[in-house]
Design brief:
The complex is a heterodimer of chains A (265) and B (342). Chain A is α/β, with parallel strands linked by helices and 265 residues long. Chain A is built from ten helices and ten strands. Chain A is globular and about 60 Å long. Chain B has a domain of 218 residues. Chain B is built from 13 helices and four strands. Classes of the chains: A alpha/beta (265), B mainly alpha (342). The complex binds adenosine-5'-diphosphate (ADP) and magnesium ion. Magnesium ion (MG) binds next to helix 1 of chain A.
Amino acid sequence: MAQERRFPIGSPILEVKNVSLSFGGVKAITNASFSILTHEIKAIIGPNGAGKSSMLNCINGIYQPQQGSIIFKNELLSKVNPNLIAKKGISRTFQNLALFKRMSVLDNILIGRRLHMNANFVQVAFQTNKARREELENRKKCEEIIEFLEIDDIKNTPVGKLPYGLQKKVELGRALATEAEVLLLDEPMAGMNVEEKREMCRFILKVNDEIGTTMVLIEHDMGVVMDISDNVVVLDYGKTLADGPPSEIRANQDVIDAYLGVAHD
Amino acid sequence: MKSNNIFMEYTKNDIINFLLLMFVALLIIPITIESGYWYSSILIPWLCLALASIGQQIVMGYAGQLALGAAGFMAAGAFACYNLILRVPDIPFFVALVLSGLIAAAFGILFGLPSLRVRGIYLMVATLASQFFIVWMIDKFGWFKNYDSSGIITAQDIVIMGKSFTSPLEMYLVIVFVVTVLTLLAVNMARGSTGRNWMAVRDMDIAAESMGISLLRTKLQAFAISAFYCGVAGALFAFTYLKSLEPVAFDIKLSFKILFMVILGGLGTISGAFIGAAFILLFPVLLNSVGNNIFHGAIDATIISSIEQVVFGVLIIIFMIYEPLGMAKLWDNIILKFKKNN
Ligand SMILES: Nc1ncnc2c1ncn2[C@@H]1O[C@H](COP(=O)(O)OP(=O)(O)O)[C@@H](O)[C@H]1O
Ligand SMILES: [Mg+2]
């Protein structure tokens, strides 16, 4: 890791405290606690079904945990929904791609700018100055992101027609476009080859370095995890098994027994 | 791919197409077509129903909400317009028309509420309530019909700035004006952030919500605007085509017709509304004239109307499966091929 960071890691921005979530009889998360520090890249690892995605869904307001609390910037998040969480400054990508399939790459990324655009439908219908200005400004921002992600050549293609790897990239672009303080990335590199993964890591590191976005990343590739994350939290059967810097996690006997020891694809 | 299609600035093609259309609508047609039949039986209903189809397009093609009940909102608009002109002295026609749209929009919000809970076929059934409720309400309370017992009320003449527009050509021109303005507004919304939000809700609602789009507001907005278009279309339909106000004219069959116009024309395109409406209106006319002129009436009228239904049914299934973007897309493809060959 670089020695001098433009955005040094600070105090906790997001705290998960004793969170439990179950679906009927299935316990997805059991009393999990960890915190995420401002400007850090935090990996969440754990075997399939460990409750990683469910955790992001709780933070993001899709699921409501039955117990525990989630605190964002010293504010308890209760009775929330994804829309509210977006407004508070947390954005995300989804494990199984949740793009707007029939819309172009550019339009998908423009939706990421939703909260930066507030012309109402009457202003849009009559193309008032405000509506035009805002549209142009936000398009420019999206073009920058498209350039950054090197997807210029496909910006007008409907995303449904793109190969999986590119769709993953577009989804990252959409999340980046929000300029949220915290990004939750659910397996952004799943199904990618080494080359593509390396590229994705570069994007994540660069955004974290240049604008200080706090990243929460679910990833299975231990090479990637140990490489780019500042801290790692390990979930196993819905419980937090360990939480600490990569070097510590690698040496943790519980983690080795439960997860690292066994082969993973 | 063209890289210069930053939409806010209309492209040169857009402007040329628009001017061409206006030239045809305002000059060529009025000069060349004299027969009132063409205006009253084809152009006027076509434009009215195309406008209602834009409404259906907004809620279904853009916002992805399977709503069925356009005719109910049309009835609301039609009777609102009748009552406004009847009861508000000297109300300008266009003011009455816009208010009628707004009243229909209020019903749109009310009957859009189920969309917050159910989707797909369930929503379709739930929105049918609008169809039955509005028509029932107008029938039930005599006030809406000014206590007219005959059941059919004659629509007032359209008077704009002291001049009455009663001939087929004059009424056609009024409609061209309204439809042009509302179509432009719809295109602006569809291409702008408003339409993007609708489509995001249509394509993946949970992701849309996670990007800060309120599903509640966006869906109800689409329902309201959709009903506004249907309401205005209904008022125009009653005042220029039916020339009367009768709730039965706005039955469920009309709602289905508008639904089919949108499906055949192409979901999620404004031009599809016009193409679909033209097809659904003209196809029976065409079929009839084929029956009369080629088979000299040898084919029974009931058979012809059955053929019509079968063809519509088959086409709808074909389009749903193979070309969900409908005839508008088909047309684009043909143009594209044509350009390539040249
Ligand atoms: N919506 C849901 N309904 C029922 N069970 C669910 C749901 N979401 C997740 N689960 C269950 O919760 C557990 C954790 O799932 P998940 O969070 O997806 O794990 P991970 O992302 O770590 O692979 C699994 O047993 C899964 O079957
Ligand atoms: Mg998962």
